[in-house]
Design goal:
With 162 residues, the protein is of the alpha+beta class. The protein has one domain: Aminopeptidase. An eight-stranded mixed sheet has the order 1-2-3-4-5-6-8-7. The mean pLDDT is 84.
């Protein structure tokens, strides 16, 4: 079951899809490798819902898990907190952008209008990706964390990074 196939910088193909049963041990290892302060909350996402809103990214040639995205809807479901993790060995080639695009599409199809992302230092690459993603956004600084709201129903020129 593949929701989306994308080409990364360098030409490798990646499949983005819903996780299969039994993949959560591998997802937990990826979250630990990513060392994001929010990983514990999102590692529990599969346990918190019957059909959790989450995606995985795997290389098509080899099948290695290289990315994970989950969004946890708030009460009412119009807003959701988004978390994306990329294997440190696969950063800088477009995996995060592909996950963000796929998660934004899936979340919007599920009735979410705003994705919220908490940027913890030093998330410079993530900040640049969110800035260039083509979605209208609101940024609020609560030092040292920046809170970004991505408005899924408003587009602007962007997606500068592949």
């Amino acid at each position: 079951m593949v929701d989306n196939v994308g080409t990364l910088r360098g030409g490798r193909l990646v499949a983005v899809r819903r996780p299969l049963p039994g993949e959560h041990t591998e997802i937990t290892r990826l979250l630990d490798a990513a060392k994001d302060p929010r990983r514990e909350a999102f590692a529990r996402a599969p346990e918190a819902a019957i059909d959790p809103p989450e995606l995985v990214a795997r290389y098509l040639d080899g099948g290695e898990l290289i990315g994970y995205a989950a969004w946890l809807p708030a009460a009412g479901g119009a807003r959701a907190d988004l978390f994306c993790a990329v294997d440190p060995a696969a950063t800088g080639v477009g995996v995060g952008t592909l996950l963000l695009r796929s998660a934004a599409s899936a979340a919007a199809a599920g009735g979410v209008s705003t994705l919220r992302v908490a940027l913890h230092p030093p998330a410079h690459a993530l900040a640049a990706m969110l800035r260039d993603c083509g979605l209208s956004s609101h940024w609020d600084l609560d030092y040292p964390v920046a809170h970004v709201e991505l408005l899924l129903d408003r587009r602007r020129p962007g997606w500068a990074t592949p």
